[in-house]
Amino acid sequence: MEIVSIIGSGTMGRGIAFSSAVAGFTTFVQDINESALHNCKSYIEKQFNRYVEKGQLTGNEADAAINRIRYTTELEEAAKDADLVIEAVLEIMDLKIEIFKQLDRLVKPSTILATNTSTMSPTEIAAQTSRPDRCIALHFFNPVPKMKLIEVICGLETSEETITKSFEFGRALGKDCVKINEFPGFAVSRMNCLIGNEAMNMVMEGVGTIEDIDKAIKLGLNHPMGPLELADLVGLDTRLRNMEYLYKTLGEKYRPCPVLVKYVKAGRLGKKSGKGFYNYN
């Protein structure tokens, strides 16, 4: 595996691209939005500067990694020579399926197609292609360069070869991989969404302040980040889409908290919009 393409230059896409380039892969980042690509490039180069300042990379290593990244608005350019394509767009099933259909026509027969979905069915997505055996879900976590886990979620027809190559890619990035059999929400998102949603319900019920609920979970359960702070980092719109999907597929216990729905309607999407449960302005 030499060439990796990332479809989508948002928070997850740029983190995966950074990690891929550091690991030595020629890395394409594709987005239909030129401005988004520019922001992605700026963010990645700032990250490399920080790594050099902290002594985590040498200047030469950073320069070499930066030169391994290509940015494009053209899906064909990004996909045609790739050995692995990772889709990292919004958690909208129809959008993911449409991208996989296009990729299936553009990539080499040997190419693996992966989705970075945190909740949705890789089987359903793969079924829209001619290569369900070479489709898989690789669930990265935010921030990608720091988080050590990749959930490798197997669809109904995912081959052992695809699983093996996915694990090899994860290890090349310095990640630990766990194999998860497909079920809505997989392992981490099912638990994470429940904890976050219950924290939101506690805010709504006046159990404690936002700060105190986060502090209680961090110190009481030894979590590195409070569930409300984490929801802001993920994006409250993303969290709401995840909750709606889990509510639809797994039932009542995943009903989104009314506060979450209200905040998204108000445009309070978390850190990326400047305000969510916390104010970042």
UniProtKB/TrEMBL annotation:
In this chain the 3-hydroxyacyl-CoA dehydrogenase C-terminal domain maps to 185-280
The record's section on InterPro entries has: 3-OHacyl-CoA_DH (IPR022694), 3-OHacyl-CoA_DH_NAD-bd (IPR006176), 3HC_DH_C (IPR006108), 6-PGluconate_DH-like_C_sf (IPR008927), 6PGD_dom2 (IPR013328), NAD(P)-bd_dom_sf (IPR036291)
Which Pfam families does this one have? 3HCDH, 3HCDH_N
Origin superkingdom: Bacteria
| Keywords, comma-separated and alphabetical | Oxidoreductase
Q: Which residues cross the membrane?
A: none
> Locate the 3-hydroxyacyl-CoA dehydrogenase NAD binding domain: which residues?
4-182
Pathway the protein takes part in: Lipid metabolism; butanoate metabolism
Name the family the entry cites: Belongs to the 3-hydroxyacyl-CoA dehydrogenase family.
**PANTHER family, sorted:** 3-HYDROXYACYL-COA DEHYDROGENASE FAMILY PROTEIN (PTHR48075), 3-HYDROXYBUTYRYL-COA DEHYDROGENASE (PTHR48075:SF5)
Recorded protein name is: 3-hydroxyacyl-CoA dehydrogenase NAD-binding domain-containing protein
